[in-house]
Amino acid sequence: MRILGVVLLSLTLAAPAVCEGGAESPDWRDRASPRLAGWRSHPNVAALLSTLVPGAGEAYIDEWGTGMAQFGTAGGLQLAAPAFPGQREMDDLQDRVDAEVEEANNRAMFVNPVATAAMDFHLYQVYAAYRDCRLRTGDAGYDHPISDEGLWDLASAPFRPRHIGRVDFWRDLVGVLALDLGIASIVGHFDREDPRKPAELAADSHGHSAFEINFRRFDYGPGVALAEADFVAEHTMVGLGEEAFFRGYLQQELESAWGTVPGWVTANAAFGSLHYDNGDTRASRWYAASSATGFGLWNGWRYRRDGYRLGGPVALHAWWNVLVSNLGFFTEGPGKGRIDVGARLPF
Length: 347
Known about the structure:
Order of helices and strands: HHHHHHEHHHHHEEHHHH
Strand content: under 5%
Low-confidence stretches: 1-33, 97-105, 194-208, 337-347
Structural class: mainly alpha
Strand order of the largest sheet: 1-2-3
Number of helices: 15
Number of domains: 1
């Protein structure tokens, strides 16, 4: 979160983008009602304030009711996350040596949906303050429209036929899978940290008929069903929060400040770099950052293609994460050994 604060502060100083209405403008600029005073008309200030204190950006643009609701929701989620069943045991597990943690990860999974919701709601409300400031000031000073999609629009996007029923949704899903497999192959070519042969790795993946979720043991069938429900719920929240912030806020702002291509590339390079720590070896970290950058560029292009509306990118992000989670779950995680996969991902 401190990294995001630095990014937002830099944008506030370098490209304040004061939005003051009054000039002739295209139709999409005529949505502001009512106009804001000059000192309240900085979208980046609204975003920075909401990064520091949830809801503060909405209060800044005189939306006190929305700001108080966001503050209460974010605070409640942050307080509830540490009390989620199993979180204390997971914290203790993470304090042990790396080998034990790795072994535990191969036979068990732990999920805390409250913690996920807390983080992704924080990202969303930063975007919401930025969006509402721009809507209230008529998008003056910007080359592209800001979408008026709300929390429910984005949370339900992965399940709406108008997004997942489109041919280009499935084309993009296959496209990012092919891109990801290519990145994995390139990174895997330089990975010398695991001396075992693929056949030996495959042999290690058999024999699991039960596993643990949140420190409770489940038979294979019920365990898989619970894991799948978690993947869908968790990645709906992740897709919403990350797309709102990185595409809806950061890409929008950088494209307006630096131009379409430089802004698109820079925003999604930042998105990828923040995924570097997702790996636990040098090769897997490079894979995580490269894969996220490639996906970000693809989804950022989709965002532009969709007229800077977030529903389609949120849906693609959510189901892409579900697909990748399943690949890991059935090849390296607790569910391994119960299906055959035609490719081995070197991470």
